[in-house]
Amino acid sequence: MAAQLSGVWLNSPAATLAGNVLHSRGSRFPSATVSTAHTSTSTPTIQIVGGKNLGQNGTESSKFSSTLDIDPEEFDWVELEADLYHWTKALRPVQWYPGHIAKTEKELKDQLKLMDVVIEVRDARIPMSTSHPQMGSWLGNRKRIVVLNREDMISTADRNAWANYYARLGTKVVFSNGQLGMGTMKLSRLAKDMSGGVNIKRKAKGLLPRPVRAGIIGYPNVGKSSLINRLLKRRMCPAAPRPGVTRELKWVRFGKDLELLDSPGIIPMRMNDQSAAIKLAICDDIGERSYDFSEVAAILVQILARLPAVGNKALCDRYKIEIDGRDGRTFVQKLALRMFNGDTHQAAFRILSDFRKGKFGWVALERPPKS
Ligand SMILES: Nc1nc2c(ncn2[C@@H]2O[C@H](COP(=O)(O)OP(=O)(O)OP(=O)(O)O)[C@@H](O)[C@H]2O)c(=O)[nH]1
């Protein structure tokens, strides 16, 4: 079954960035060579820069030109995941399970029987980490649509990879932008089409037709309420840039033939997968009290340094700090010393918020398994 895709295929800055920086094929992890090749003494002041400006004196670009010589499509995501597993093992575990989530989980299970179709919203940057491990058993054979929201925050190549993956699985997928509304009409049409059988059965029993009921569920902060608000063109559900804003389940009507359930974000009681937990923290999809900013930013630096669409060079260009091998912790400390009077929390916050704002280009932190 072909994947269902929303209309707009964006040429993201990440794709452009990757296109601009692909020089040649070379070592698999060129980043390791950079720290020994560069000395920091040539950087007089720290300055945040964006775009393609390669440095204050124009020479740094050549020193770092070898950091991105890997074909993004050849990148070994499995190896990155394996490293991420080891990096996160030593850290304090990230756990977040506020009381309202336990309550929601229970209520959602009760409401499931009312739903004709379940719309599972995920963060397009981390579709695997925003997939609840128990979702399959809760839903059983229920009709399901997977929504990859925040499509604006990934590259075209990321999007194509996920679209192909879901097409292979035969899963209905819609890419959406909950801020601007892209994909929402497609989603409502698909929900109605998939549930058309409900009213055929009702008619056969002599019952009047009723609106199709679609439950919108997913991790915190992935954009569930925003999608509903965009569809309704009204702010019916609370939405804000932090996890845990929606606290109550709420059915709202869209036209005469669709009802949507907005629900608070759910997350496993115990996050066994700490790589996923760190990615949730990086993407701001988990309460910020649950993690240490410096640790999470250090891991983010290590991930970004490895990603072909970002690499050491983008980090160095932005902060005018070289990365020592793959040591994100030292990078955060150096940034703290240079810009924030030694305050690593502030330095970490800057790196995380730069990533969340797309200052390194729009890149996904996950790609689907190859087969
Ligand atoms: N860039 C971008 N931001 C989005 C998108 N969708 C939603 N947002 C933003 O993400 C934040 C969270 O959106 P919400 O709709 O509150 O998320 P939620 O899933 O309902 O969150 P909970 O209440 O925690 O369950 C808001 O600041 C939205 O403006 C999108 O597609 N792209």
Automatic annotation (TrEMBL):
Keyword annotations from UniProtKB, A to Z: GTP-binding, Nucleotide-binding
An annotated GO cellular component: mitochondrion
Gene3D superfamilies registered for this protein in UniProt: 1.10.1580.10, P-loop containing nucleotide triphosphate hydrolases
GO MF terms held by the record: GTP binding; GTPase activity
GO biological-process terms attached to the record: mitochondrial translation
Pfam family, one: MMR_HSR1
Domain G: 214-270
Nucleotide-binding keyword on record: yes
Transmembrane segments annotated in the record for this chain: none
Protein's name according to its UniProt entry: GTPase
